[in-house]
Amino acid sequence: MMKKSNPKVVVCKGEDPYRMVWKGLEFFKKPSTKTVVLKPNLINSENPPTTTPSDIIEALTTYYKKMGYEVVIGEGSGWFETKHAFEVLGYTRISEKYGVRLVDFNNDNYEVKENPEAFVLKKFEVPLTLKDPYVVSVPVLKEHSITTVTLSLKNMLGATLGEKGRVARKGRFHRYGVDESIVDVNLYVKPNFAIIDGRTAGLGSELKSKPKKLNLMIFSEDLVAADVVGAKYLGHNPSKIRHLKLAQEKGLGTADLQQIDLVEVET
Fold first, then answer.
1. What single DSSP character describes residue 255?
2. Which residue, of 120, 166, 171, 179, has the greatest Cβ tally within 10 A?
3. CA atoms lying within 13 Å on the CB side of residue 96
């Protein structure tokens, strides 16, 4: 029986998002679908590093469009109207400049799926925008007051329907159990790739993060492994982060830093 190879995580050092994107993606195969969905973290309308900088999304948009893909940018903000977050943070400009579609997952059409193996979300409304494309989770490298870090896995909580009439539109996941919900959402949506923007990391609160320059960007097809490396760069012990351990238990990726092939490159 062949030994399973270790997941690869590429860390690009630098500041220019275009150079970092092109360099980091050189190490991985191209998407096999015609559509790429980019999922930033726009939890509210605060400037980066609370939210994903628009320049990395613009760099990824130009990269994938040059490769011949259709690009969609999707988010379902938890603490702000998504449309306004798109406008305030520069995403509407990207949409108009490059002709890409913006999707508010809070109001997307959906289909209900069931998974008896899920921790808490035995049924789940999967947004139709995420049904067939290549999904790239593009969070900022950021700490979280409850889950320690909010990286590529937790970012996917925004790729869900929002609760109507609530300020915290993703509050149900905290009521059900946030660590379990993170894993369950990723089991249903199954993102294909993680790109974590750590040029300026966000420390402290997830809603008003304090900036720290790290000048790096993390790339991987294994979201768990990407988040493990990201947590390490934030100064946290990945083995103490519950949703990373649960994600490995469910087969979403590798949470053991010793079993990850880490490649560091300068741009």
1. -
2. 179
3. 6
Helix H or strand E encompassing 17: helix 17-25
Residues 6+ apart with CB under 8 A from 235: none
CA gap 40, 137 in Å, rounded: 6
Q: Residue 105 is which amino acid? A: F
Which tokens hold the place of 44?
């509210």
7, pLDDT greater than 60: yes
Tokens of 193: 């790739």
Dist. CA 225–CA 208, nearest whole Å: 26
Q: Is the pLDDT of residue 174 over 80?
A: no
How many whole angstroms separate alpha carbon 45 and alpha carbon 74? 15
Q: Mean pLDDT over residues 79-89, rounded?
A: 93
17-25 vs 54-66: helix crossing angle, rounded to 10: 50
Q: Provide the pairing of β-strand 35-40 with 134-138.
A: parallel
pLDDT band at 1 (very low <50, low <70, confident <90, very high): low
pLDDT one-digit tens code per residue, 85-123: 999 999 999 999 999 999 999 999 999 999 999 999 999
Q: What's the burial of 164, exposed, middle or buried (CB within 10 Å: 0-12/13-18/19+)?
A: exposed
What confidence score (pLDDT) does residue 151 get?
Answer: 98
